Amino acid sequence: MIPDQRETPATVSGGADKFDDDHYPAYTMGRAADMLGATQNFLRSLDEAGLITPQRSAGGHRRYSRHQLRIAARVRELVDQGTAVDAACRIVSLEDQLHEAQRQNDELRTAE
């Protein structure tokens, strides 16, 4: 569901491939919606909920990264199981906070 690397490579300064960067906003709203099997309104609702804040192109169009699409896919899965969009956004946000706290805790334990 998340994009593969068949896109034409574009490089950033230093020659790094932008498509290797999970946070590079490579996907238009239409393409992102197609990849997720969702509507553009679904993506707008995630933006309105504050879960995903897509970058904007020079023309003001939303652009999504692979990282954002993975988050949207997690929300979509919960919504497909009957969870309301706002509740699904909150669940995903709390899961991410929990994982980050666990990562920090593990890091502190290994530093001792």
Alpha carbon gap, first and last residue: 40 Å
What order do the strands of the largest sheet run in, or round the barrel if closed? Answer: 1-3-2
Structural class: mainly alpha
Major β-sheet annotation: 3 strands, antiparallel
Domain count:
1
Walk me through this protein's architecture.
With 112 residues, the protein is mostly helical. It has one domain (18-111): Multidrug-efflux Transporter Regulator, Chain: A, Domain 2 (Orthogonal Bundle), CATH 1.10.1660.10. The protein is built from 4 helices and 3 strands; from the N terminus they run E-H-H-E-E-H-H. The chain has a 3-stranded antiparallel β-sheet. Helix 3 (66-80) packs across helix 4 (85-111). Residues 1-12 have low confidence and may be disordered. GO terms for molecular function: DNA binding; DNA-binding transcription factor activity. Pfam families: MerR_1.
Secondary-structure blueprint of this entry?
Blueprint: E1 27-28, H1 29-36, H2 40-48, E2 55-56, E3 62-64, H3 66-80, H4 85-111
Antiparallel strand pairs: 1-3, 2-3
Helix pairs in contact: 3-4
Properties at a glance:
single chain; 112 residues; mainly alpha; Multidrug-efflux Transporter Regulator, Chain: A, Domain 2; 3-stranded antiparallel beta sheet; 3 strands; globular; disordered N terminus
Provide a compact summary of the structure:
The protein is mainly alpha-helical.
